[in-house]
Amino acid sequence: MNIRKIFKPFKTSNLLLLITLLIPAISYAQYQENIPKPSGPVDLSKTSNVVIFIVIPVVILIVYLIFRKRIIKVKKDKFDRMK
């Protein structure tokens, strides 16, 4: 069955509205009771917390910036070749 035939009667704005209205219902359905929740600040004296909350986000940010710069360079080179 073709997906386009299913969603053809719907406009993009209607689909976006439907998705926006369904997000709270989906997130509430995943709510689990009796799960312990953290109640205080993060203890950075533990190595695992430092790695999880500082090192990994910094590495992700650096990788993102490197790839973003590379993508911009590739697009510029492609544009220059088309001239």
Automatic annotation (TrEMBL):
Residue stretches spanning the membrane: 48-67
Protein keywords: Membrane, Transmembrane, Transmembrane helix
Identification of the protein by name: Adenylosuccinate synthetase
Organism (species): Algoriphagus chordae
